[in-house]
Amino acid sequence: ALTIGIVGLPNVGKSTLFNALTRNQVLAANYPFATIEPNVGVVPLPDERLAKLAEVFGSERLVPATVSFVDIAGIVKGASEGEGLGNKFLANIREADAICQVTRAFADPDVVHVDGKIDPASDIETINTELILADLQTLEKAIPRVEKEVKIKKGDPKLLEAMNTAVAILEKGTTLFAGAADARLDLADVASLQLMTAKPFIYVFNTDDAGLLDSGRQDELRALVAPADAIFLDAQFESELAELEEDEAAEMLADAGQAESGLDQLARVGFHTLGLQTYLTAGPKEARAWTIRQGWTAPQAAGVIHTDFERGFIKAEVVSFADLVEAGSVAAARAAGKARIEGKDYVMQDGDVVEFRFAV
Ligand code: GDP
């Protein structure tokens, strides 16, 4: 499964946030999650469509899609016995598919800040500089080799050009994710190098209540990290929320004037940042959201349910969620001509409600 690595300076609230993520998953114990690992928080993706689907189909339970977060800081703490701590840290970031950087924006004088002041911009620069330097090192090692290969017509000149463009972006102190568009760098061209700052970034600003409410300040921070997504949450509040039953949590959220918990926002943004989407299936047993990549075809999507479904794929009956709810049942949707039979080249759309036909 694709994972999002959580990074940040010490004392910014990473553990607090991660504990909220994992507690959230423990409470959601009726979801059939895969193995629970100590450094991985698997959180359900909020999806209001599932409850509606369950109504239409009389489904017994809801099974949402999930998003996995890895506590990279936790891995580092555990690995502190061994040598090469820095390298291990970077190796763990390399394995993640996206980076979630937690930054302190809460004031609390009782919690020491490593640099002695609350300055999100400077904190982000500190972390990103490390990642940028590591990427520059990777490129500086690889460029001479590719140059040689290009000279003897064995290398890819396009790769070399992309690598040099990447160096120019990084030397300006910009992550590749943030700088690629302006420099006309197609990140796919340097994908083979597994550069860390080429991964999608999400920034979580760990705020106190006042910070949550100040929209001017939020806009400043949003602009600072664009085009990455910014999420504002109070990690301590989220960890308290995660301990409550669903209805109590909803009440506490409403009292705080928030429409959605920070963790729900994080799951949604994370899912989107990873380039994922869902399709839906439903029956009397369960209404379920399945995770696929954007652009996947019907047989690829069927393969997520079972590899046999992909191999033996014949066709799919697809109704859009909106059409299905409007019609009230699959039969009514069929009668209204809203159920389509799609073949193996069909590209899945978000919210397709699907039944696959296959032969084994
Ligand atoms: P980490 O080192 O980044 O994992 O940070 P921790 O999660 O251990 O948090 C460091 C300290 O800050 C702890 O004492 C937390 O209780 C506190 N803390 C975390 N989030 C918040 C917050 O949103 N507001 C306040 N006031 N304190 C927080």
From TrEMBL:
Domain OBG-type G: start-end pairs: 2-253
Family indicated by similarity: Belongs to the TRAFAC class OBG-HflX-like GTPase superfamily. OBG GTPase family. YchF/OLA1 subfamily.
Gene Ontology CC: one annotated term: cytoplasm
Domain of life: Bacteria
Record keywords, A-Z: ATP-binding, Magnesium, Metal-binding, Nucleotide-binding
UniProt keyword Transmembrane helix present: no
Gene that encodes the chain: ychF
Reported cofactor(s): Mg(2+)
Ligand binding (ATP): 11-16
Organism (species): Rarobacter faecitabidus
Gene Ontology molecular function: ATP binding; ATP hydrolysis activity; GTP binding; metal ion binding; ribosomal large subunit binding
UniProt entry tagged with the keyword Cytoplasm: no
Protein name, per record: Ribosome-binding ATPase YchF
PROSITE patterns: G_OBG, TGS
Domain called TGS: residue spans: 275-358
Chain's role: ATPase that binds to both the 70S ribosome and the 50S ribosomal subunit in a nucleotide-independent manner.
